[in-house]
Amino acid sequence: MFKKPVLLTKQNKDIKFSQLKNYKHSRNLGAIAINYLEISEISKHYPIFFVKDGEFFTPIALLGAKSDTNLFVNKSGEWSGHRYIPALIRLYPFIFSKPDNSGDSTVVSIAYDSEFDGLNDHNGERFFKDDLSLSDFGSRVMKFAEDTFIAINRTQQMLNIAKEIGLLVQIDITFGKNGERDHKINGLWQIDRIKLNSLTDDELLKLTKSGTLHLIYNHIDSANNFDNLVNKIV
């Protein structure tokens, strides 16, 4: 989504950001990372799988049959129907950024897309007040970004439990219209249902108490949403 991310600093106090008017920025996204706080809503609308990044696993909502195509956004940037829109897409043009170790107090743990078309809109809002404290707008964005970042980390910890138990298996999926299998996505991971059904009592308790089992069932239930995806393939 981000064409040119730039760290936000207090020297940027005069920059104004407009509210999102559409979701054109997500048109080239075939999938988006999601977190446990939103996974119940996500599971009602999109297929959910997992991807591996280093030692960690992250759940993703599948938005297209290709890596660069979001089938749920039209040319005008309108999101299809009344489906839930993932948090990272709604957070744009901002993204949480880990603070550096320079000790520079002017650097905020937020980056923004410097090519966002709503930048310096005359109706936009400033991130900082004149005294360099956060504005109401800045406080809302910061809280949303921090909450999302924390939730993503928590989700990765949950999936680490599933990994330790041996529940995650790598797969390739093929699908298409009218029974054709002309679309293929490689390198995804899903829950091994045979292993899931043979858990020990201790493993099941660990998954339940950590909230991981709820996440797993949302993932399994989300398979019903493939029709939503397939029906949008031209």
Main features:
234 residues, three-stranded antiparallel β-sheet, 22% strand
Concise structural overview:
The chain is of the alpha+beta class.
Label the structural class. Answer: alpha+beta
> Domains counted in the coordinates: how many?
1
Q: Number of helical segments?
A: 7
Q: What is the straight-line distance between the termini?
A: 23 Å
What features would you describe in this structure?
The protein is of the alpha+beta class. It has one domain. The protein contains seven helices and ten strands. The strands form four sheets. It has a three-stranded antiparallel sheet, with helices on one face. The two termini are 23 Å apart. The mean pLDDT is 91.
Secondary structure layout:
Layout: E1 5-9, E2 16-17, E3 31-33, H1 39-42, E4 48-53, E5 56-62, H2 87-91, E6 94-96, E7 107-113, E8 125-126, H3 136-165, E9 168-175, E10 183-191, H4 193-196, H5 201-210, H6 212-221, H7 226-230
Helix pairs in contact: 3-5
